TrEMBL record, chain A:
<dbReference type="Pfam" id="PF03591">
    <property type="entry name" value="AzlC"/>
</dbReference>
<feature type="transmembrane region" description="Helical">
    <location>
        <begin position="135"/>
        <end position="155"/>
    </location>
</feature>
<dbReference type="GO" id="GO:0005886">
    <property type="term" value="C:plasma membrane"/>
</dbReference>
<dbReference type="GO" id="GO:1903785">
    <property type="term" value="P:L-valine transmembrane transport"/>
</dbReference>
<comment type="similarity">
    <text>Belongs to the AzlC family.</text>
</comment>
<protein>
    <submittedName>
        <fullName>Predicted branched-chain amino acid permease (Azaleucine resistance)</fullName>
    </submittedName>
</protein>
<keyword id="KW-0812">Transmembrane</keyword>
<feature type="transmembrane region" description="Helical">
    <location>
        <begin position="192"/>
        <end position="211"/>
    </location>
</feature>
<keyword id="KW-1003">Cell membrane</keyword>
TrEMBL record, chain B:
<dbReference type="InterPro" id="IPR008407">
    <property type="entry name" value="Brnchd-chn_aa_trnsp_AzlD"/>
</dbReference>
<keyword id="KW-0812">Transmembrane</keyword>
<feature type="transmembrane region" description="Helical">
    <location>
        <begin position="91"/>
        <end position="109"/>
    </location>
</feature>
<feature type="transmembrane region" description="Helical">
    <location>
        <begin position="12"/>
        <end position="32"/>
    </location>
</feature>
<protein>
    <submittedName>
        <fullName>Branched-chain amino acid transport protein</fullName>
    </submittedName>
</protein>
<keyword id="KW-0472">Membrane</keyword>
<feature type="transmembrane region" description="Helical">
    <location>
        <begin position="44"/>
        <end position="65"/>
    </location>
</feature>
<keyword id="KW-1133">Transmembrane helix</keyword>
<dbReference type="Pfam" id="PF05437">
    <property type="entry name" value="AzlD"/>
</dbReference>
């Protein structure tokens, strides 16, 4: 009986993440194209996507290497972009922390923006799920999203330099992230976190190595938590 | 563009892969089942909405494709995507209409 339950949450994860294929695909193709243009061969481009499996960090690293930045600057900047993965990891821990270690290691490797965004939304909407159901759902989201990342990187590397700049593929990345975040802005606390993050990211963009993003992330989380406390207090006063 | 040094490239791929895994594993793997205090959980609820907007904002306002100059079509497309996503809660519709508005605006302004 519990097997049919985990089975159905697995497929729900697959279904819920399918829309992200439209998101992953241009992003993956774009990485393949950009990497090939920067002079990487197929093995190098594919290794990048399979070993690192983090689009934004891969673009950051590639850009800085093309500018011949020192290796430690490349690593520091790309890891700073990926610091949000630590926050995702922390946020998934209350839901998945009870899973066996080997599953948590696999979950860690596959923790990307899309699997995280899908899973955390589903966990919040289904508080009654067991750990096994939550793990099954997570791997469902991964099943559609992560192989697509590898395959589309390959397609991009094959297309190479054939995509004209008029297609403005550069903007696939921001549009994707905005479309993911917009439906999450459902409470004043979520909206405050997002607005704070935008303002701080722009104001502190002068800080090198993307560390302004960390200021924005931490500031946004503090704003969200603060507004949530205010909201709770207001509701208690009304009640 | 002259080539990227191969030793540098492989160093970055391997260390970035290990580092990224470490960042992803640090809480799920090491903290595991131990419970976390309520104030930590309250902050973690806002991780995604606190990090992703900050990642996107500079890309919208200072896009690399226009050498960091503010570009009306890209700002319009970002606002359309945000509006559609916010009101319909539909990620795909937001991406589709956002992309359409980008191409329409690029055509009109270009």
């Amino acid at each position: 009986m519990s097997d049919t339950h985990t089975n159905s949450t697995y497929w729900q994860g697959v279904r819920d993440s399918l829309p992200f294929l439209l998101v992953i695909s241009p992003f993956g193709i774009l990485f393949g194209v950009v990497a090939t243009e920067a002079g990487l061969n197929l093995l190098e481009t594919m290794s990048f996507s399979i070993v690192v499996i983090a689009g934004a960090a891969q673009f950051t690293a590639l850009q800085l290497m093309s500018e011949h930045a020192p290796t430690f600057v490349v690593l520091a900047s790309a890891l700073a972009v990926n610091l949000r993965m630590a926050m995702y990891s922390a946020s998934l821990t209350p839901h998945l922390g009870a899973a066996p270690l080997w599953q948590r290691a696999l979950i860690a490797y596959f923790t990307v923006d899309q699997s995280y965004a899908c899973s955390i939304t589903a966990y919040e909407n289904n508080p009654g799920w067991s750990t096994r159901q939550k793990v099954a759902y997570f791997f469902g989201t991964v099943t559609s999203v992560c192989p697509a990342w590898y395959v589309m990187t390959y397609v991009g590397a094959m297309i190479g330099t054939a995509i004209p700049p008029e297609l403005a593929l550069d903007f696939a990345v921001p549009i994707t992230f905005i479309a993911i975040v917009a439906p999450m802005l459902r409470t004043p606390a979520h909206r405050a976190a997002a607005a704070t993050s935008v303002v701080l990211a722009l104001v502190f963009s002068f800080i090198p190595y993307n560390l302004g993003l960390m200021v924005a992330g931490v500031g946004g989380m503090m704003a969200g938590a603060r507004v949530e406390l205010w909201q709770n207090r207001k509701e208690q006063e009304v009640a | 563009m002259d080539g990227i040094d191969k030793t540098t490239l492989w160093t970055v791929i391997i260390l970035l892969g290990l580092g990224s895994f470490g960042l992803r594993f640090v809480f799920t793997g090491i903290i595991g089942d131990r419970s976390m205090p309520e104030w930590v959980l309250r902050h973690l609820r806002y991780t995604a909405v606190a990090v992703l907007p900050g990642l996107v904002a500079p890309l919208v306002v200072w896009p690399a494709a226009t050498q960091g100059q503010i570009d009306p079509p890209r700002v319009i497309a970002a606002l359309v995507t945000l509006g559609v996503g916010y009101f319909t809660k539909n990620v795909l519709a937001a991406i589709g209409l956002g992309a359409c508005s980008l191409y329409a605006a690029l055509y009109l302004f270009g």
